[in-house]
Design brief:
Pfam families: OMP_b-brl, OprB. The chain is mainly beta and 676 residues long. The chain has five helices and 27 strands.
Amino acid sequence: MGSDHTGRAGNIRTVNRNHRSLEHALAGAAISALALGSPALAADMPLKAPYLRPAFDWSGFYVGGHTGYGRGSSNAVLSDPVAVSTNSVFSGPIGGVQAGYNAHLPSGVVLGVEADLTFPNYIASNSIVSTLTGARSEVVEKLDYAGTVRGRLGFASGHWLLYATGGFAFAGERFTNTPDVGPDQKHINVRPGWAAGAGVEYAFAPHWSVRLEYLYSQFDRADVRFPSGAEHSSTLDFQQVRIGLNRKVDWPGSKTWTPNTDLTDPESDRWEIHGQTTYLGQGYPAFRAPYTGTNSLTPARQAQATWSNSLYLNARLWEGGEVYYNPELLQGFGLSDTVGVAGFPSGEAQKSNFPYPHYNTSRLYVRQTFGFGGEQEELASGQQQLAGKVDVNRLTLQAGKFSVGDVFDGNSYAKDTRRDFMNWSIWAPGAFDYAADRLGLTYGVTAELNQKQWALRGGYFMIGAVSNSNNFDTQVFRRGQYVAELETRYQLFSRPGKLRTIGWVSSANSGSYRDTLNDPALNLDISLTRTGRLKYGYVFNVEQSVTDDIGLFGRWSWNNGKTEIMSFTDIDASLSLGTSIRGTAWGRPDDTIGIAGAINALSRDHRDFIAAGGLGPLIGDGQLNYRKERILETYYAYALTKQITLTADYQFVTNPAYNADRGPVHVFSGRLHGEF
């Protein structure tokens, strides 16, 4: 019976298949007959061409960022009362953000609208439009930002889009007048204008595209009159050549929308994207201060804030080869313009003041890893690490722009001022005068040999041309900093720990504290004693896990203290100890409590120089009743989500800038941090 059933079923399927074939054949014959046998009727029946889906659909919203090079020109006239004029050109790196919407038509034409904001580089000279000096005034014009709202018209072919663009432009500027008599006078101005340009864009993944674009903007004349009576008039045009990265955003209900889509999914295993944003506000009430110097913490109550926004774009180049790019937009002010305390309260407060966001290529480097076989370990994806398996026994080389602290002086509990401790002498070894510009970055090359129980690291880094500078000494290898670190990994009562021992030496064009003091004719100007000198020091850095939720850490750092600080802060010896506690015990496993203290000191030569009225990068009260600077910091980081953390922080600073005549200071901070 089963056999009979199977036979009948087979016959039925055959009949149905033949029937459908017959229907198709008859339909085809009928259409052919109509088309061939009746030309007039065939002509009256148009055939619809099949719809061909484009290789990439440009339709929809998108967001992205860009970087590149900007060049502006201006003609300015200052009347005060005699007219003086200048033609000026300014240029430098730029960076910004954009967002827009495209409509991709079946013909291949793409219509769109886009808005963008572009910011100049953080180096001041890159944003100075013009400087004019008259009989009674000096006026400086600075560009804060430029933006556009434009239409786009393009044609798409495959994964490529060629387009032209044009529309409204605007630029934000600040004019500062320094008259012969009286305080500075400031004027904020926004210029309208127009913009036009063209570009080419390539879609390399279902939701990602990269572009190259040229944009020209011309703005209306700006006429400014200051309270002193000085009048300033100027023109402005601005050209940009920039590359950009865009991410399509699918809205619910759109053709390409997929629920639970991660906007940061790179849609490829060859590259990764991470990002972060941190807003940090700090303030303190008034404190006792019988006198105040040039680099003193202002005794009156004050509050300041910083805001940083970062992307981390990491890509695999070849076997073991990787490239890392970290653009950032930085804005804000440190307390008292980031002076007044050697162990400064905020690691987000760079030694620069940015009333508007400024662009910086904070990191751009290549990394090559050579595996020697044997046991492997998994490296987790991170802001400066591509995920993947590597040999435990390996050699890693790195070269480019980054921070010394990216490779050296790691610590699981006190390292990241955007997530844990904020004080300079707690998240870093205070007496390690590591090579850097005013934002804490430099150019260098490093090598790391990693084994299961230890790692050996070494590196060379370019150092500032002078103390506290954004310019580097280009006498490579003759001037610079050499760093070596041995990291040993151990078990204490079955809990993991690490000890890092660092030695460093810097060859720099630096001044001597004692030589400056010994020559009264120098009037404490240490720059007049600058010549090639050596500065050296060491760091001991330990971290110890106590339980899965509790960790201890400590750092002891020292330098010889004979020559001026080149990059970091006015500390010649520093001891810090602390603990980090996760909130598992009270049902908040993603929360963290941190408690730490630091004691900072100066060498004899350094303290004598400051006591005589000398100035360091961060300190200088005009006189000094020397005591060691003591800092207590505690924070609670409350996890709002897996990606967003709100932190309350308190710091108690005794003897700020080593001066027992001033303080103590109570610093209160709030930090909102998000990352992906």
